[in-house]
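3.2 Worked example (two chains)
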Amino acid sequence: LFVYFPKTNYLGKTKSGAQPDLSKKQFAINLVTSLLGFLLGIISGFFLTPYWIKVLGIAAYGIVPLTSNLISFFALITSFLSSSVSRFITIEAGANNFERANRIFVTSFWACAILGAVILVIGATTSFFIDKLVVVPKGYEFDARVVFLMATVVFVLSTILIPFNVATFCANRLDLNSWTEILVRCLQILISVVLV
């Protein structure tokens, strides 16, 4: 697996003389898209929660935050991994050491894939026994298993994609991450409204 990093030195200047966009305009774009994503998350949570409670009922809706809280335990591990991968790849790419940056990328990709496989096994096992681990309303045992398993699969996919997010940091294009998060949030809203 090979990832292309543009040949930049530590100050961001490429051999061709071009520079990553460090302008105030790019900073403003990064900031605005981050705020849009944040606000969309708050607004969707504010409006969707009453909708889900109304449609699903309080007992069934309780499965959603429970699943979210259980998955967030795994997020602690991956946040440390994401920070370290971003740091080391960015340092090496900034120092024009692209061979080492690519080695770090490949290593981190396989580490994330292995971690994802471990989390998938733990999540699948947990989802199978979810009604034994937590109180699930009668008649919702299967639904709780499916919700927890699907949340685990989505989390595993995001874990495997950690190394690919580094490129936006190297190029100062954090707005691309924000637009992706906005798109994912919109898809979540659409799917949840259509399926519920």
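3.2.1 Second chain
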Amino acid sequence: TTTAVNLDISHPPGYPLFTLLGRAAAQIPAGSVAWRVALVSALAAAWTLFAVSRGLRLLGVSWVAASLALAAIGFAPTFVFLAGVAEVFTLNTAIAATLVWLAASAGGTPRAGWRSFVLGLVIGLGGANHHTIVFTLPTAIVAFVALLRSGERKRIVVAAVFAGVALGLTPYLHLVTAGGTAGWPRWGETATIDGF
């Protein structure tokens, strides 16, 4: 919470997306600062359940099975705990669930260029949140291949994905700007390439 409110740098890899979202949430004029920053996790938990439900339905899972899956996720003790604290993990699950949803909806869809950009954006935001998002790479590859086969020109799909990834990684610019300021906590000197 302190890192987000002060726009400082967390321990490596810095978690710039959560820091910036936490800073934005801290500006809400309601509740304590800790509650406002934890609101990011609560909203991410809600989005996780929504994205999982959409992905499962697109994959043809029955509403009964989808409901059971959502209950298993939504009532899991760790999920419930992390939804109430200011931590990066619930945002990571929201991003992973969104990738599953995008993969489920990628095949044979119109506007593949736009969907490719969104896929890249979610991948980039995942990288700006927590490095374990790399474990969803197979899901992202499935979505990417489906978009390549959608009939849209391949160059458009590839360019859109790369543009989305680049935009999604822009929260890392916060590490560069915050690293040049004095203060605590500082987990690395980002003013030089070696320190970054």
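3.3 Remarks
The chain has a mean pLDDT of 85.
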